[in-house]
Amino acid sequence: MLDKIGIAKRIAKEVKNGYYVNLGIGIPTLVANYVHKDIEVEFQSENGVLGMGPFPFEGDEDADIINAGKQTITTLPGASFFDSALSFSMIRGKHVHLTILGAMEVAANGDIANWKIPGRMVKGMGGAMDLVASAENIIVAMMHTNKRGESKLLNKCTLPLTGVGCVKKIVTNLAVLEVVKGGFKLLERAPNVSINTIKQATAGPLIIEGDIPVMTF
User: For 80-114, what is each residue's pLDDT tens digit?
Assistant: First the structure.
């Protein structure tokens, strides 16, 4: 199965030339490090950055240049900085081609829960609800199961929802899945991961058609 870097590398294949891409907190922030060098893409962070680059090497960090998760980042030539009002105008105006988010749960109909676990203190939902309400192409990056080994791909979310029917594709440490009518359609499996392992780790309806190829990077 994949680690977080492996998930980011696989999602990087979904980024196309000319895309404007919003990267959420967590695994999605790693995607910028693995986009193919022969394409041009603009990464946007909701705190007001357009033109993010890979993470800086140790010793090269600038504490004033951060992403929405307060991680230090680099910027590419031509990058721009602006206030949150303009940043969310870009998001709400549907100027972002692809949104990559983490999630705690995803339902078979494309619902996503990624901002709150009841009983735990949180600072707020951040920009997640704006992103899922406005984006037309949402990919979720997450582990297939939680720390207790319970599936995070469910028939119905149990946690407070962030968005309804919005997720298009999911990349986990076990598989690539597409949200279709009727459930999660298995598109690819991680190296050395069997179909049976994916079945056992998926609580929601899993659709398997034909031979399932192994992920490539």
Answer: 999 989 999 999 999 999 999 999 999 999 999 99
pTM exceeding the 0.90 threshold for the entire prediction: yes
Cβ-contact 41, 35 below 8 angstroms: yes
| Residues in Cβ contact with 38 at an 8 Å cutoff, skipping those fewer than 6 apart | none
Whole-angstrom distance, CA of residue 204 vs CA of residue 27 = 23
CA gap 187, 26 in Å, rounded: 23
DSSP string, 98-157: EEEE--SEEETTS-EE-S--TTS--S--TTHHHHHHH-S-EEEE--SB-TTS-BSEESS-
Domain ranges of the chain: 4-207
Catalytic residue set? 46
For the domain covering 4-207, report its CATH number.
Answer: 3.40.1080.10
Instruction: Give the pLDDT confidence score for residue 127 in this predicted structure.
Output: 76
Q: Which two tokens stand for residue 65?
A: 């240049």
Name residues whose C-beta falls within 8 Å of residue 178's C-beta, 6 or more positions apart in sequence.
168, 169, 170, 184, 185, 187
What pLDDT was estimated at residue 118? 66
